[in-house]
Amino acid sequence: MYRISQLAKKFGLSRSTLLYYDQEGLLSPSGRSDAGYRLYSEGDCERLAAIVSFRKAGLSIEETRALLASGEGEPSVIRRRLAAIGAEIRALKAQQHLLARMLSVQSGGELPESVDKETWVAMLRAAGMDDEAMETWHAEFERRAPQAHHSFLLSLGIPEQEAQVIREWSAAAATRLTEQPR
């Protein structure tokens, strides 16, 4: 039997993560010691290994719960996650292609000194990005490099107040994207 700290250490997790998994109904201790400590069995250890694997694959708590409840794994949950990852990869490749095109087309490989908001939006649309893809692009930019995102918006000639509004909805979009069931 493992105590909570021993099991957490074995998997490189925090104690609070195991408490959260218990709260969410993913992993409950098999028993308690005389002193009231949570005790986990080898079966619990195997279940935690599955949980860790599902989470590393990017599955949400809800999807992980569904997979654990089905016993052998619900293929549709895994297929949906695989499709979502494929869509994310395609979106990133489109962004990569767009940026490469922008660099090669403009000024011998460099962006011109004055790309304004309208030009930027037109280039994104020409590369096939719709409103949803642009929202995702802004959300990722804000999530990964908020100061660079702010500087970029200002470089397009966008006023400070409008840049702040864009950053606020970008941050909200980033939160929505990370909270969506995958």
TrEMBL record:
HTH merR-type domain sequence ranges: 1-70
Name used for this protein in its record: MerR family transcriptional regulator
PROSITE patterns per UniProt: HTH_MERR_2
InterPro entries given in the database record: MerR-type_HTH_dom, MerR_fam
Pfam families reported for this sequence: MerR_1
